[in-house]
Write a structure and sequence with these properties.
Blueprint lengths: L1 E5 L4 H12 L3 E6 L14 E4 L9 H4 L4 E4 L9 H22 L4 E5 L25 H15 L6 E5 L2 E3 L7 H8 L2 E5 L8 E3 H11 L9 E3 L9 H11 L5 E5 L1 H18 L7 H8 L8 H7 L7 H14 L4
Parallel strand pairs: 1-2, 1-4, 2-3, 4-5, 5-6, 6-10, 7-9, 8-11
């Protein structure tokens, strides 16, 4: 199978590229001219330089591909346009390039639970729930998914919606492990707030099924881990235990977190630096729950996740330390 991965230099992209190359697929990775591809070391792939926000760079990359895995996107930004330009309009540009290619490659799009918005602590989201994004990132991912399905009459399309993903190479959750390394366990008052977690290898496994399964076409699927939801506090506890640490608990009120996030976004606008803390993260952390059900993927595609999120947290913590990230 000939495949193109956009966003191949990112966390999920590196794992997907490794899995595809390992099984003998012909892999092309769309990477920006100065993009970091260190995670792809040792992987057999062809580099295609391009950017989903630059339509002229996409035609050569999609030509001749059987499947396009669209993972490119931004998770941090100081303005709404930062998210919409890449996550939504970049998706439209890619779909246009795929239609223009003329041979109808399948699109496997990486969506997000963020498009659905928070759930309630007692009821996980299912795919039929309407979108109610909570912040700009989720809004852009909801719009991207609407764009993808608007092309369903011209392209075979399917969407994978992961919740919070854990595993080596992940930088989104790294800040919480760094806090533990500094002797701090952050506790947000008013919780606990349950989170569905999933291991990166389970997300890759579902996307590979979606790349060929006929029942995946025209459908979106949540990708949930096999165990009950955890809380942010539990993630930190498990990580600290894996590292042999005993951090002290620091309780933070929601208003204080919001104020710190607003200040961080101000710094980002002035300096261009994308900080770990921002309004998007603060709103996500303060939501009542981020949970989803993986029942549809099991029912229609026969997908069953194999990795316990607790073990994923431990594996991530030890990998961070081995790599000197902590």
């Amino acid at each position: 199978m000939r495949v193109l991965i956009t966003g191949a230099g990112g966390f999920l992209g590196t794992w997907l590229a490794k899995a595809l190359a390992a099984r003998g697929d012909t892999v092309t990775c769309l990477l920006r001219p100065h993009g970091d591809a260190s995670g792809l070391a040792g992987v057999a792939y062809t580099r295609a330089e391009g950017d989903v926000t630059l339509p002229a760079t996409l035609a050569a990359a999609v030509a001749g591909q059987d499947v396009v895995f669209h993972l490119a996107g931004v998770r941090r930004g100081a303005t709404r346009d930062d998210f919409m330009r890449v996550n939504a309009e970049g998706t439209r540009n890619l779909c246009d390039a795929m239609v223009a290619a003329g041979h109808r490659p399948r699109l496997v799009h990486a969506g997000s639970l963020a498009a659905s918005g928070p759930s309630t602590p007692t009821r996980p989201h299912v795919e039929e729930d309407p979108f109610h994004p909570y912040e700009w990132y989720g809004e852009s991912k909801a719009e991207a998914e609407r764009i993808v399905f608007s092309y369903a009459d011209r392209l075979p399309v399917t969407v994978c919606r992961p919740p919070r993903i854990m595993g080596p190479w992940d930088k989104e959750n790294l800040a919480f492990f760094k806090l533990a390394q500094r002797g701090i366990r952050l506790e947000l008052t008013g919780g606990p707030r349950p989170l569905t977690l999933v291991d990166v290898e389970d997300v890759v496994a579902l996307m590979l099924i979606q790349a060929t399964h006929p029942a995946a076409l025209g459908e979106a699927f949540f990708c949930a881990g096999p165990s009950a939801p955890l809380s942010l506090e539990t993630i930190q506890e498990v990580g600290a235990q894996a590292l042999g640490l005993n951090p002290r608990t620091v309780r933070l009120r929601p208003g204080v977190l919001k104020g710190l996030a607003a200040a961080a976004d101000g710094v980002s606008r002035l300096t261009g630096r994308k900080l770990a803390l921002n309004r998007k993260l603060a709103r996500q952390l303060l939501a009542p729950a981020w949970t989803c059900s993986g029942a549809k993927a099991e029912r229609l595609l026969g997908f069953q996740p194999r990795h316990d999120p607790v073990e994923s947290i431990r594996r991530s913590a030890l990998w961070y330390r081995e790599q000197g990230w902590l």
